Amino acid sequence: ARRYDVYPAENVVGEKDACGVGMIANMEKAPNHDLLQAALRALSCMEHRGACSGGMDSNIQLCGGDDSGDGAGVMTQIPWKLFASEVHIPEDRSGCAVGMLFLSKDPEERIAAKKRLEEALVHERFEILGYRIVPVNPSVLGERSAQTEPWTEQIFVRHPTARGQKLESLLYIARKQTEAKLSYDSMYIASFSTKTIVYKGMLKSVHLAEYYKDLQDPRYTVQYALWHRRFSTNTMPRWPLAQPFRTIGHNGEINTIQGNYNWTHARSSAFEHPNFGYRMEEVLPPCRAENSDSGNLDCYVELMLRCNREIPEALMIMVPEAYQDDGSSDAAEDAVKNFYEYWGALQEPWDGPALLAFCDGEYMGAALDRNGLRPARYFQLKDGTTVVSSEAGILEPESAPAELFRSKGRLGPGKMIAIDLHSGELIENDAIKQKMAAKKPYADWNRVFRENLPTPDFLGVGHDDPVAEVVEESLITLQFDLGYTIEDTEMVVEAMAQTGKEPTFCMGNDKPLAILSERPHVLYDYFTQRFAQVTNPAIDPYREALVMSVEVYLGRQGNIMAERPTYFQNLATNNRLLRVDSPMLHERELNAIKSSGLLTVELSTRYAHSDGPGTLEKRLSDLCYEASNAVRNGAELIILSDIPQTAQECLIAEDADPASCLGLERDQLAIPALLAVGAVHHYLIKQGLRTQASLIVNTGQCWSTHHFACLIGYGASAVCPYLALAHIRKWYSTDKGKAKADGQTVEQCQDNFRNAIIGGLKKIMSKMGISALESYRGAQIFQCIGLHDDVIDVAFKGTPSTMGALTFGDVANESMLMHRKAFPELDQGEAAVKLDFAGWYKYMKSKGEFHMNNPDMARALHKAVRENSPMSYEEYRRQIMDGRPVTTIRDLLDFVSDRQPIPIAEVEDALSITSRFVTGGMSLGALSRESHEVIALGMNRVGGMSNSGEGGEDRLRFTPVMDVDEEGHSPSFPHLQGLQNGDSAASATKQLASGRFGVTPEYLTSAKQLEIKIAQGAKPGEGGQLPGAKVDKYIASLRNSVPGVELISPPPHHDIYSIEDLAQLIYDLHQICPEAKVSVKLVASAGIGTIAAGVAKANADVIQISGHDGGTGASPLSSIMHAGAPWEQGLAEAQEVLVSNGLRKRVTLRVDGGIKSGWDIVVAAMMGGEEFGFGSIAMIAEGCIMARVCHMNSCPVGVATQREKLRKKFPGTPEHVANFMLFVAEEVRTILAALGYRSLDEIIGRTDLLGPRGNSDVRTNVPQPAVASGMGTKREPLGGPKRLSKAASVDLSVFFSDSPPDEEDRTSWVGATRNSPAHANGPVLDDDILGQPEIRQLLEQNSGSVQKELDICNTDRSVGGRIAGAIARKHGNYGFHGELNLTFSGSAGQSFGVWNIQGVNLRVIGECNDYVAKGMCGGTIVVSPHSDSTFKAEDNVIAGNTCLYGATGGEVFLNGRAGERFGVRNAGCHAIIEGAGDHLGEYMTNGIVVSLGRIGRNVGAGMSGGLIYVYDPEDQ
User: Fold this and answer.
1) SS3 labels along 256-300
2) Is the peptide bond before 1116 cis (omega within 30 degrees of 0)?
3) Which of 343, 593, 1174, 1232 has CA atoms 20 to 30 A from the CA of 1497?
4) Nearest of 1431, 1498, 1419 to residue 1463 by alpha carbon
5) Among candidates 507, 532, 291, 633, which has minimal Cα distance to 1109?
């Protein structure tokens, strides 16, 4: 068997990229240099979609920095005429090829690499015609690009006999053999073909042709070209990662790359094809770990091409559209469905946002992902030219005037367009796919080789399944043994059985990490779900369910490179694959699978524990061997089961009495199901056997959505949770259970449980932007916290892991602790009659798990802030610092000062420290008006910054309060107490979340800082809902919605599908409010450093790292408990990556998540934090008592409710919040003095001042503030934190260093951005407009009318935004009474008319790109084609995707069609268009949209208000 490694963990957290991409072709004209120049100009129009090492090009021009481009390139046909002048090329070029080589600049290494390549080529009988040194101009390179610039040569070869596919195959073999022996540093072959050539590098768009002199040579003539401009999330330049690759240019990200890579390697052992014969192994594996996700996609496409697939066919297999629910019934469309169904059983999708431009010399074209998450416009000209591009407006108006355009269109979700490079024919989506589907009899193959699993009913009352009877009779014993608690059964299993939905909870996860807990945990608790943020979007699995798929195929996959099903097996004669509707099975379905005809082997995961903890590792090894042996002997299904073996015997003995069957042997432990499936999965991959059989897990240790996700994510195709189902049946048999079932049958309750699990799985998949379960299976979209590397390497290889500690022995010990509860006689104990309360979700004093936020702590803090008592604050501090178990990573750390203490008087003052404090983005709506305003008032008093959250803000709060009486009452704010004249209730930070509620020009311009909330600590990757009960009249008025109707925040920002989209939104915000800094809120997770680097390059001013323990008003319970990572990990990683990439000075780092004390602040500062956020603790300071009923609108103290009666009980005042912040600041001062430092600036980034904590109860160097101030006497600790056996071996090395950082470097970035103005957009068109005297006068006088006509192009972005900001600052949203009429001619760039305001009327004669009228508040926008255009406007696309996003007013008129998601979250705009793509009016809450033309699918999904009128002349 061939053996291949899995996708490495460092790649999982490594570089991400995005870009602008396009292609141009004209096969009707002879090859010409003008077409290449048109391509290069189009590429230069994409510069804003790329980046440089120092950030965005516009900011580098202003502020300086390394302008090494992240990558740019072109692919064209080979310019033989150019090369023939330097290399002798035969007249008959049919056997000739040229390779583009990146070589080492070291002569010896270069010669050795070329020798390797020549040997491989000669072995395939190629004749070496010669080499050519590619002429370049290195002077245009930036610093880092120059440091890694390769030596570039071209090699020319000829084969005497081979032609066509045979010739390409021989080139491929020679190249793969060479690559297997050399690193990319020695030789990277950018292209090697008889048809195409690639010129690329770590360059800016404008420098590509300047660097490669060939591209300026008029002899370089072509008929087609493909271009690409890259935006990388880091700055370490790697020339091989520039694009295009050999067949594709990819704009997007492969979310499932880890699984795709692993499955590709696993399948490789079965790959065979006549084109390679016995030499197949020489070209495997197809993918390579040092490639990017796009590079590996290209490699796999290339292998398919060499196996006689056409490139449109290969991409249909790898990136399929969502075909299941398209509603079509046409015979030709059915043929395409049969194609997708056939290949869908064999090849998981390479899933993620993608615009794929492709070319192999036979076809050129473009394809879009199933969700349509990247922009793709295409144009046909009357002279035969076809263009596809990320943007419109990339052709020179002089060479492509309006009258030359035949049509303008866009690619929709999952669609494709192609050009036959031989005939010149443009083939649109339906035709090209039908052509590919007609190549083979897929309908016949599906009938023969696919079978649907019958769907028997769930077990009911009085069932006759003997094993299930034994399980039910031994229920509590098995539940103890496998780790259930009473909370798991009542809050999870029973709740889902009743409602069919995941349970909802609130606040956050404030209990100890599993690795720090004193209690045994199931193995799943050491894994957290990863999620999309910035570089790719999450998906809404509810409102966009049409793209989701959870079907599963069971059986042997075999050789998918073969061209007919008979190739699909080597050993077995049965080629059937069994289709199952969902991955959750019940007992009867599992039995049906066993009797389906597929060869099934069931392996027990139980083992005798009598030999001690070391037995686990040996039994796991034996299990892997048993599984591989079964597969070698023909097994097509492996079932891993932890049902006790004695229960299994009941099936064998026909006359056995189930009641007499012992439910569980005392000496038998179960291997944790996750460990078992992960180990077998990876072992079969190593043995080259993985795709020959499916894995099914029959386990009692699986009851939540997170458990299912883990099992499937590590290789299981399906799971039967027999114990959870048994519990539902047992629960239903009680009077209490039957009453709660509310008339439902036991079968319906079990089906509810399955529906909840499937819904939760879709949600978890969608958090990472994954649509298909087959792509999620084996993709390992998790981070591990607390398992030793030995365990990771065996069962979870390739998973990012931190804080490694637990060995196999430790895992066995945890299982044994659970087992002893099942059999208390092992410890001479008594049998329990009910499950334990573990306190996983709720706090109960002296019982269950510790929770940081608890009533005792709240009472202590209330006393401190209400009495303004330092001694009471000390009591609070002692409770959260010295008197509790180890809970967080920072609890394992202590200070290691290198100085003597200093007097506290020498330390910076408290207000200097509180200026660094912020509060979390808690929305008005989730919070009551009183609590939201009090936090803002308190933070403003101490110079900190509160955050509006995503609910908008009353304009009354934008001006200071000046009508306060002596008792602290204000007529303006009659509901508040303790006010002072001069107080400000304005949130200094205004948030933009995905819902864009209340985001108007006035709202934005009132901000000191603008925050883009990418993710939330309590539920990263998910959207939010504000229950209808909380949407009263006041809240609805702020959010432009309907009272009493639930409001939805989408999981993604619909204008942030990639890193360059984030850069555009940052640009939009800097446009309207140049003085306000823009912060981006991320959630800690593996790979956040890479994301942070991209955000820094995208021109953000502040990056906020939120921990997983952040609070929330409402969230699925599994999300609160199992997503995200501690802020310590996220901050440490972000700091390290930003410093190493030279980007740290570009951003301020902020951190939040469970921060409650000055000690937390100092630790965070040493790790690199400059500003610090408080969330739940700020709510507690103003009166929250942690009742944890936020989601129920019944907060008893009026903090998180809109019920008037409860709001009157609100006890907080601004002074309470201010007092807390000042207490924390004084604690910081005390610690700084004890450490010998005078300011936070002096310790920021000083991880050398941290070290592992000793065994003492009290942290060193932390005197109490009361003592330091001479106000009290030192008291003894309350009984310090316990050091755990689990935590004792935790690896903490990433959190501290042994030596200080370079002080000159450190001081260069500490405070660099915090003390500087906001980043700028550079020169913009709006400045020119606002600079005109008559317009300045119009704004000042607030009356009159001005008309202007201007030219516009696609690089003029966010036009109108700065004008709206200037008006809003002077006149508010609706106070401008003048009229400014601006008419533009050309192609407007992204975000045209963003934030447009009353009195401003914008018109474009031409076309627009994405995000027209984003956040529009008033005025009008009109877009119409040029009068010289000859096409029908109503049939052509005139605007891009996501128009009117979050608009609150105004009018829009489009004389043509729009793209996807027109009117998304429209909250008041009136618009008329002539057709649109999918998701029209999604999440709309107000306004009117009239569509006079064809529209796509999913109209009005999530819509809660407003009106949509549709006239569809085609009646579709």
Assistant:
1) CHHHHHHHHHHHHCCCCCCCCHHHHHHHCCCCCCCCCHHHHHHHH
2) no
3) 343
4) 1498
5) 507
Rounded to whole angstroms, the Cα distance separating 961 from 972 reads: 8
Cβ density class 1442-1465: b for 16+ within 10 Å, e for less: bbbbbbbbbbbbbbbbbbbbbbbb
**What pLDDT score does 1272 carry?**
33
Radius of gyration, CA atoms only, the chain? 32
Q: What is the pLDDT of residue 1284?
A: 47
Which entry of 19, 287, 702, 1195 is annotated as an active-site residue? 19
Contact between 1043 and 1033 under an 8 Å Cβ cutoff? The reply is yes
CA dist 394 and 390 (Å) reads: 9
From the list 381, 37, 456, the residue with the least C-alpha distance to 209 is: 37
- Nearest-angstrom CA–CA distance, 119 and 1312: 55
Question: Is the whole model's pTM more than 0.85, yes or no?
Answer: yes
Residues 6+ apart with CB under 8 A from 433: 312, 316, 336, 339, 416
1190 is catalytic: no
In sequence order, which residues have a C-beta less than 8 Å from that of residue 859 and are 6 or more positions away?
none
What's the pLDDT tens digit per position in 1319-1374? 999 999 999 999 999 999 999 999 999 999 999 999 999 999 999 999 999 999 99
The type of residue at 938 is G
Residue 672 half-sphere exposure, CB side, CA atoms within 13 Å?
29
Print the SS3 string covering 663-689: CCCCCEEECCHHHHHHHHHHHHHHCCC
Q: What value does the mean pLDDT take over residues 119-126?
A: 97
Prior bond of 1027 cis (ω within 30°) = no
Identify the pLDDT of residue 637: 97
The rounded distance, in Å, linking the Cα atoms of 382 and 1014 is 44
Confidence bin at 838 (pLDDT 50/70/90): confident
In the chain, the amino acid numbered 490 is E
Is the confidence at residue 1404, as pLDDT, over 60? yes
Residues 1257 and 1278 sit within 8 Å (Cβ to Cβ)? no
Q: What is the distance between the alpha carbons of residues 610 and 1383, in angstroms, rounded to a whole number? A: 84
Quick one: which of 687, 716, 848, 713 has its CA closest to 784?
713
**DSSP per residue over 1254-1279, as a string?**
-S-SS-TT---HHHHTTSS-----SS
pLDDT at 1488 over 90: yes
Do residues 1471 and 1488 touch, judged by C-beta distance below 8 A?
A: yes
Per-residue tokens: 449: 């080789």
Q: How far, CA to CA in Å, does 271 sit from each of 304, 347, 564, 674?
A: 11, 13, 13, 29
Bridge partner residues of 1148 (DSSP): 1102
Q: Which single residue is written with the structure tokens 């649509």?
A: 771
Q: How many angstroms separate the CA atoms of 982 and 989, rounded?
A: 19
Cβ contacts of residue 92 below 8 Å, gap of 6+? none
Q: Which residue has the tokens 């100092």?
A: 1162
Q: What is the pLDDT of residues 1439-1474, one digit of tens each?
A: 999 999 999 999 999 999 999 999 999 999 999 999
What gap in Å lies between CA 164 and CA 169, rounded to an integer?
Answer: 9
